[in-house]
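Quick start: load a record and inspect it. Here is Isoprenyl transferase:
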Amino acid sequence: MRNVLKSAVYTLYARRLAHELSDAPLPRHIALVMDGNRRWARQNGFQDAGIGHRYGAEHLDEVLGWCRELGIHHVTVFLASVDNLRKRDAGEVDNLLRMIEEVIIRRLAGPASVWQVRTAGRVDVLPDSTRHALKSAEEATRDKNAAFHLNIAIGYDGREEIVNALRSLLDAERQAGRSLDDVAQQLSADQIATHLYTSGQPDPDLVIRTSGERRMSGFLLWQAAYSELYFCDVYWPGFRKVDFLRALRSYSARERRLGS
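Running the structure step on this input writes:
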């Protein structure tokens, strides 16, 4: 009886939040730092903390469904940084990448998925199987209706992204026959932005990080310059729809100054 009452209260609260957002300004692009998988597993009594990665991977599918319901057309998810892949225990990294291959990429590349997938990060630091899975997902979704776009940040570092964007820009200008002096004289932020992983997409309006950590960890350093930030104390696998709606309510109540 108690669980039934709790479920009913939760449902009513979620409906109230959704109603409050019905006429509110919503973000076009949300970025998610899916933090706290291992701590969630330990908190829930799992001996293998890596089990949290499976629950976290499966939960992403649900959260993307919430975004789709609300008409949020651009999502970027931070799955693993370069440091994560290099410094964490090899067994844990293997487990994380296997979950990404088996759960996230398989579902996103399936015929029922509406998301067009793009990889954001250094695929050269990934094992062959993960690189192949990401490439397959991109190819399988390339010709989908481009209404919904998902960027998968894996092997990602925000500073490296900016450096690589500058390298790509300089190489393109060199091939066009322009001198370094000409490039320096005409260089603009918009030019650099066209060489970022998210080129052609709006910058994230809202960045949500779970687990209670209050830092960006090098995520989308360029793109998130004017983003609204929302830090949620729950761990990623326990991130509920009401938590998501609260983040959107907080966003809609803010006066966006965009740098001013």
